[in-house]
Amino acid sequence: MWPQNALTERLSLKWPIIQAPMGEHTTPLLAAEVSRSGALGSLGMWGFSAEDGARRIAGMRQQTAGSLNVNYPLWGDPGDLTNTAEDMRATLQPLYDNKSLGPVPQPSASAGCITDEHLDMLLCQRPEVVSFHFGLPSDAIIAALKEAGIFLICSATTVAEARILANRGMDAIIAQGTEAGGHHGFFLGDKITTRPSLLTLLPQVVDAVDVPVIAAGGIADGRGIAAAFMLGASAAQIGTAFLRCPEADITDGYRAAMRTTSDTSTEQTDLISGRPARAIHNRLTRQLAESGTHPAPFPAQYGLTGPLEKDDDPDYLGLLAGQAVALTRDMPAAELVETLASETSACLSAFR
Ligand SMILES: Cc1cc2nc3c(=O)[nH]c(=O)nc-3n(C[C@H](O)[C@H](O)[C@H](O)COP(=O)(O)O)c2cc1C
Description:
Blueprint: H1 6-10, E1 17-19, H2 28-36, E2 41-44, H3 50-61, E3 68-73, H4 86-98, H5 116-125, E4 129-133, H6 139-147, E5 151-156, H7 159-167, E6 172-176, E7 182-183, H8 198-208, E8 213-216, H9 222-230, E9 235-238, H10 240-243, H11 252-259, E10 266-269, E11 277-280, H12 283-291, H13 300-305, H14 333-349
Parallel strand pairs: 1-9, 2-3, 3-4, 4-5, 5-6, 6-8, 8-9
Antiparallel strand pairs: 7-11, 10-11
Helix pairs in contact: 2-3, 3-5, 9-14
Flavin mononucleotide is lined by residues 20-23, 25, 44, 46, 71, 73, 131, 133, 155, 176, 179-182, 216-219, 237-240, 320-322, 324.
């Protein structure tokens, strides 16, 4: 009943379940425990040098021979932002003052890209999968990775985006619904309100492309995975639920906030990083929204809100999480994979 397909066969997966890459939250230990359990573990590369990236991959490899996905969110250089976002800096200053953080810094940011050093590192380390978010790198980088036998995947939030990714050679496409925690991986247009949820996006992407489709967004238990398979998915990518694993690197305040959530605890906001992301709403997101102030360009806004996280106060953390956050459980990663697999099997058997 479980969908065995090009993706599970090529990546030697027992379970078509992918632990989503989530930047520094996704540790080598988390990815190793997930892969050891027969699912696909992922490491986020956001913010890591090629040297650190290689170290993270080696750390995972030391613990398991299972498959690994290495992830790159990609965005353009916002340019020199000095003396911009003055309104946002003025809005944040009283919050900084309450925490004795001094003056709000000047906004600054650089591009998110696959540098030559990262490309060399990937060609040397050869993770089984490389994934992208917010669109694709150059054709030359795609060709080099493919030539090395690396399986390539990228997030799409609409059918049009999925078609572009298929035409540019992705081996599988992640259909990311608006329920998803973290940043929405859109790269066409900027209107977030018209983008579909997973229930509607997934079958339309499955109909539109000829490569395996991975469902992402709001899946936290076997019911969600089974539903995704019913809609044509070849695998499910799950982020928020894996944040609750002790192997994930999140603060005590973040963990505590996740434990006291409900179905209405999250919202889409660009006020944490400068780009729409789904997060648990808290005092920070409410105060910034009420101020009506525009954020600094992505990801410079992170540099303005980040210092407020210093004392791990859940009211002022950027709590990226998806709409299924209240369904998530405190559980070691290996146990979570086993639980998700047995819950899914039970759901699929009920429809035999
Ligand atoms: C805290 C957090 C950080 C994330 N960071 C990344 C990232 O760096 N790269 C990426 O491709 N996706 C990232 N995502 C999105 C996931 O890949 C995935 O689409 C999402 O977690 C699925 O929805 P769910 O959280 O409801 O399971 C992140 C998600 C969360 C919750």
